[in-house]
């Protein structure tokens, strides 16, 4: 297990060394926050420009920036450690709930992945690496606490202060990860219910206070922010974290109504696009949202059928594993109050399997009932990141079926073993192919980074240090130049846009000389060309990709 984790981690370090995956302005936003924390003493509570999602990745990057300087590699390095933690947590959870051999196989599988799965865990765009590493530890700690809970017949085998520390640690994880994003809520809810069932005797004692105290500690930044708004009730009602989150979801509802998308689009987008992307299907389909917004071609139909099949089979396996786990618990329900320690432990472990699978069901349930699957299924597939943590539980019946292939005593068992083996082989081969596809993408990402480096150097050489641009260029240039270039966002009509760190907008507006830089495909250029007529601005095309307007120094 250690060897697999080390090799998988080193592989991702090599990817980062070649600047894969290609960065963007969302990642630049977190890099900027890390620099403001490291060198200016700022303490942002949320992502710049939005009142939710705690910038944990920026806080982890800040000390690395101080030691080694700001760079894309140092921004992402802490995520590599999170990924290693995800594999280790998954191993111990699966070993506890199932078998050691299956735990090793699970870690081996998750050391590979499609480009989408790999980049989601090593790209610093917020929340997804944190949630993926937190989920197995939430489930593991909850199971450990249930296994060592005191009963009427026997005290807890664990020293009391250790149990208190575990409850407090779980509370802190709850709080921090809810501050990061509420998408993790299904795991928090199922783990809490699980603890309430098996640790109910401690509900009126120190463990309850420890977990609540840890929760409040982890949530402190969010609580502090919302309390600070209470001085103005109107502002509080509009800008508290819950209202902002509901507003963000309401935007997609409005887009769905505007584009006349239906429940069918929502279901197809969730099952055919988002679910396969989130769970490692490879290759992803070209123009895979054609079913929602476009027209099919010969290149998309076959791939889309494959994606739909992946999504349906995955859901069927999730339903099968959940039903089997619930049936197993129901059949052994009499053990719940058993005085036999071994039987009770077995019942708790079977119940913990249900906890894991219900977390998966609730995660997908909250996604498919939202409008994200209809409006932007490709980009919102990241909301299903935590399904990776539950894949070992979902594929456990398949693993068991495959293991019985050579022990089959009749044709039914043999057929089940063959089908299960084929499914496991398809899953493993798909993940390996995805990793190979990732390697093929590295040269493009490296060239893109080098071009961005040349662009930054060129802008500095012509004195264009205060610039206007569009959103997906601004933060990237600011972070890449280590704030030597300050950028403010403009909408296509050249009015002020979403500049996430607001002081940057004032710095550019107040600069005596400003430059303009946009990709050649930007909608802004038509209005900008009209604005530049009759001025002393010089127009320049940079490497056939960017249009720059600047006043020569």
How many beta-strand elements? 5
Strand order of the main beta sheet, please?
2-1-3-5-4
The H-and-E topology, N to C, reads as: HHHHHHHHHHHHHHHHHHHHHHEHEHEHEE
Rg, Cα atoms, Å: 26 Å
Q: Structural class given helices, strands, pairing?
A: mainly alpha
Main pleated-sheet profile: 5 strands, mixed
Helicity, as a percent range: 55-70%
Beta-strand percent range: under 5%
What is the first-to-last residue Cα distance? 59 Å
Count of DSSP helices?
Answer: 25
Low-confidence stretches: none
Shape: globular
Mean pLDDT: 91
How would you portray this structure in words?
Keywords: Membrane, Transmembrane, Transmembrane helix. This is Glycosyltransferase RgtA/B/C/D-like domain-containing protein. It comes from Thermosporothrix hazakensis. Helix 4 packs antiparallel against helix 5, helix 7 runs antiparallel to helix 17 and helix 9 packs antiparallel against helix 17. With 553 residues, the protein is mainly α. It starts with a helix and ends with a strand. The chain has 25 helices and five strands. Strands 2-1-3-5-4 form a five-stranded mixed β-sheet, sandwiched between helices. 68% of the residues lie in helices and 4% in strands. The mean pLDDT is 91. Strand 1, helix 23 and strand 2 form a beta-alpha-beta unit.
Show the helix and strand layout:
Elements: H1 2-17, H2 25-40, H3 56-68, H4 72-97, H5 100-110, H6 115-122, H7 128-147, H8 160-180, H9 185-198, H10 206-218, H11 220-228, H12 233-239, H13 241-258, H14 263-278, H15 290-293, H16 298-331, H17 341-368, H18 372-375, H19 377-380, H20 387-394, H21 396-403, H22 411-461, E1 466-469, H23 471-480, E2 486-489, H24 502-509, E3 515-519, H25 524-532, E4 538-542, E5 546-550
Parallel strand pairs: 1-2, 1-3
Antiparallel strand pairs: 3-5, 4-5
Helix pairs in contact: 1-4, 2-3, 2-23, 3-4, 4-5, 4-7, 7-8, 7-9, 7-17, 8-10, 9-17, 14-16, 16-17, 17-20, 21-22
